[in-house]
Amino acid sequence: MSEAYGHHPSFLLCAIGNEFGLRGTDWEQVNALVEEIKAFDPRRLYTGCGARKNLPADDFWFTHHTSTGTRGVGPAHPDWDFAPALDASPVPLIAHETGQRPVFPDYDRLLPKFTGPLLPLNLERHRRSLVANGLESQVPDFVRASARFQLTQYKAEHEAMLRTRGYAGYQLLMLNDFTGQSEALVGILDPFWEPKGVVSAAEVRAWNAPTVLLARFARYVWLANETLRVRFEIAHFGAEDLPAGPVQWSLGPREGSILMRGDLAAGHVAAGRVTDLGAIAVPLAAVREPASLALSVTFGGVGNQWPLWVYPALPDEPEPPGVLVTAALDEAALAALEQGGRVLLLAHGLKNPHAARTGFESVYWSAGWWGNRFSSLGLLCDPQHPALAAFPSDGVSDWQWRDLCAGATTLALDEVPEGFRPIVQPVPDFHFNTRLAQVFEVRVGRGALLVCGYDLTGQLDARPAARQFRRSLWRYVASAAFRPDAVVSVDWLRRYCVSADESNRPTP
User: Fold this and answer.
1) Less CB within 10 Å around the terminal CB: N or C of the chain?
2) Number of independent structural domains in the chain
3) pTM of this prediction?
4) Which of 367, 438, 425 is nearest to 135 (CA)?
């Protein structure tokens, strides 16, 4: 390889292999191979093996773990980095196979592209399952929601790497989808290196470019009586230094007038490092209503932005009048429904074969390897639904949902009325095509039932998103707008919404 391609300008790094088994590998021989090629052609950097073991002859190490992880989506704020992982590596460290969050396949767009000898029989099989489960009409929404959430996760992971001073870099596992290994559709592009029609190149270049603007702040969800404090940084690995100039920032709705703006005077920015650009403190008292905002910044001809949610600092509201709020669909709740009453079931912790605890992040790599029917690729909801009137969103997963979704109870629903749509629906993984729900509403006889799988009772003082979501649901179930269309039987409710062991249910 060195004799044939050693002159090529893109041949910068060389590894003897990737992910050798920790047991059974002759590490002394691998190290000897590294020493041999380094002596033969010292023009580039060499390493023995990715992801497993750092060897004495290595010039660098690419791995997913040192003493701690070197990759991952991370917490619900951008004030963190991978600095702890650097301490255990004596050589420059590169994050191994980053990304790996799938997007639901757009079958109508994708399948006609297979015009050669390779037939997409596996994808066609998954599509048949989708149709059989009655979810075919939702494919455009599943594609959009999962692709937007993939972008959110990739941006968070890779900006954390760029914030890490001393990190040598990262290798995104795939820029395009991989149709093998149980269909790992983790690419920003499809298998043919073409866009999926949801995410733009500009949105990716904001966090994956020679020059990237960064921000550090404590969380994505705020109250209006707080002050947002942000420190801006810039990861600049362009060919030349950047001259001093203004850092211009703004805060406002994603679409609409800017609420606040300002600028900082940044000095000379040297190439090849991460540089501080300055800090701001922004009181949020001007935000009067629940708001979904964007913090935007520009400097040196590049820009970036981050989502923020700001809610009024209000006390908890009492339980909605005229509504039975319960943690168990017991006989009293069923009687209330039979009599035409309104019931709000707090189903967090529900235990039966149709319910499971789930998380925030998308399936990793492929649910065909280690998924189940509760595996999901993000959330889907209608932001105009009156149940979400006080909880603004773009209709897809983003950071204001993390506290709700981490440990949420998700239900797998079958035998639903035609046209049934949950209020908040996890996007199913395409290997299972399950109709999932975390919040939904149904009519039972003369009564109306709303089921919520989120924890809306615990430690609300430290969980502003949960408190605001609770406030939004409380108002909805007490309003005239709460009139579910989908009709189900009591037997259906007993099958899906009653715990197999009521003694283990939490109390509200």
Assistant:
1) N
2) 3
3) 0.96
4) 425
